[in-house]
Design brief:
The protein is 30% helix and 17% strand. By secondary structure, it is an alpha/beta fold. The chain folds into three domains: 356 residues, TIM Barrel; 138 residues, Rossmann fold, CATH 3.40.50.720; 133 residues, 3-Layer(bba) Sandwich (FAD/NAD(P)-binding domain), CATH 3.50.50.60. Strands 3-4-6-9-10-11-12-13 form an eight-stranded parallel beta barrel, surrounded by five helices. Strands 16-15-14-17-28 form a five-stranded parallel β-sheet, with helices on both faces. A five-stranded parallel β-sheet has the order 19-26-20-21-22. β1 and β2 form a beta hairpin. α1 packs parallel to α2. The structure holds adenosine-5'-diphosphate (ADP) and iron/sulfur cluster. The site of adenosine-5'-diphosphate has 23 residues, from α15.
Length: 690
Amino acid sequence: MARASRFDTLFDPVRIGPKTAKNRFFQVPHASGMTNANPRVRAAFRGMKAEGGWAVVSTGACSVDPSSDDSPFPCATLWDQADIRAHALMTEAVHAHGALAAVELWHGGAAAMNRTTREAPLSPSGVPWMATHVGFMSSARPKVMDAEDIRDLIRWHAEAARRAEEAGFDILYVYAGMGYLPYQFLLSDYNHRSDAYGGSVRNRVRLTEELIDAVRAATGGRCAVALRISLQELRARPSDAAESEAHEVIAALKDAPDLFDVKMDYSATDCAPSRFSPEGSHEAVVDFVKSLTDKPVVGVGRFTSPDTMVSMVRRGVLDLIGGARPSIADPFLPAKIEEGREDEIRECIGCNLCISSWHDGVWVRCTQNPTAGEEWRRGWHPEIVSKDAAGSALVIGGGPAGLEAALTLARRGFKVALAEARGEFGGRLLWESHLPGLGQWFRVVDYRLGRLRQMANVSLFAGSALGPDEVREFGADHVVIATGARWTAALCGANEIPAGTLEAPRVYTPEDIAAGTAIEGPVAVFDFDNYYMGSAIAEALAARGLATTYITTAGGAQAWGIMTNEQPLVHRSFARAGIGYRTLEIVTGFDGETLTLAQIFSGEKRQTVARSLVIVGQRAGGSTLYEALRTGGAGGATLALTGDALAPGAIAHAVYQAHRTARAVALAEGPARPRRDAAFATLDIEGSRA
Ligand code: ADP
Ligand code: SF4
């Protein structure tokens, strides 16, 4: 199919200094949790995006010197010659598909804790980075850079740039954003210097400018030089000379780089969850840049709609459509638009499981794309599954796991039947996507159902609750059970020890809310699940006009939400909605009128009035159907349990397990063992600094 002509402009080539991007799709630098320690995994992950049509594919942050060290969190490096080979694998994988490879040269300054190298963190004026973010928290405080440190910093960038060119990179970034060192020079709050690098905006910009010049000179102008810059704070600052300090900075740098990559300042606004931010949420901050420079501008905004992308170009906001999360969820997004298959885009849902992987220090995981990070290790391709199967498969349960299992089995060539008890497919998302802000999460269902409906070898049976007899009667060769999990009303004791249940009126679980049970206020939500469900239910109840209090065992609302950038926004949302919250407490009693709470460390008790209690704690998996078929026979079919029924978790876990289950069905010897990546042997090369 040919692409729609209204999308033609997305496929215009764009000149970036000495290089040309073949279209406007630009995978901007983003964390992947992959480092030089797993070069093959990284190369395959990035190479897949080039295969999917992205014109530029970038690394994540890549440290230029041991004085910027994020390890033991994932930390890619270009510290010396020994690092080149690992990066060359990635650039080869990217070039193999006609894309340009970009490297994000990075010095974290006061935001790099140097836990392993034990170098003193560097900063313009000794002001620490006020970290609210997992990997940046430390008790180390930075030293003030002297003139020699500044010269070193510029030299490290130049040396790293030379190595980057040797590794095959086409575009070299200077990174003045997100709290990292050149950014700290830009902001007067961090930069109190009285030398040529502090004071006026012109002086604060000087370091960034010199870094750009040094990187360009180091590669003789052969590589393009990009500037990645955060503009949220600068734009909020008035300036006598321009509309804002951001305008002044961009005007001063307008001819310096070959490309501007413009973004926000904080992870929670830069990589904002869809629950609190729509597509294109950066525009109000970055929209002015193109009016001040003739250089191309790239920016992000969780763009998955080609019409929005065209609008960004037509309205003069961006020249290149940046993608980080959309490129993880669907590496083939550009190819699908080019081939007129935009309805097949696996749209990012904005859940930020991907960013949580980086905070966990592991390779990127994605709710929508279970193959992300598994391209090399397991040989999984996001679009192509070998047609290696015949026979029939019955999948029971039409939630995220059942849909994923059915799709993967169908792609493998099985004749697939998908049975769902309810009248509609979607499982937990049928309801969860109606919680405040979670509408886009239904894309997990839309993508899979959309594909399944187009496949001739798939039959969909909604309204079909199957028991063991029906399953045996159906006579499929293979049966996959994905019947989900249930929330329980079990309580949590102090010291993380489970407690029993409550015998009281008006005690509910999320399933009761899903079923539309009328809730009387005031209502208390007791959350020790600590992911999105408790806070989203509190928001939903408050939106119904009920006086709502949120109680958690943790130190803050939705404690795990710090991993997904949601936590600060949850606190903001609670404040706006008037949701009261209590931390570090457990529920020890409730009689339908009075709720008794205990401080988890002191045991001190407190009572409060509540008519209803919603417990968001544990989920139970398992399947009576599976057990019945296992013990009573499955009519000769192979049997597998998957998704939340196997082990309750986030949707990402259910989708991943289902994908894995479906890949393994009917393999006599089971799936191949995953390959193990390893760093290239470190050569006996001296560090770049004595
Ligand atoms: P997961 O996240 O693992 O996909 P969900 O709870 O979202 O789990 O989905 C499980 C689905 O399985 C639900 O839609 C539920 O209605 C369906 N289901 C449960 N038992 C049966 C059954 N015996 N026959 C058909 N569908 C079932
Ligand atoms: Fe998008 Fe969620 Fe996948 Fe991240 S994990 S790319 S936010 S769908």
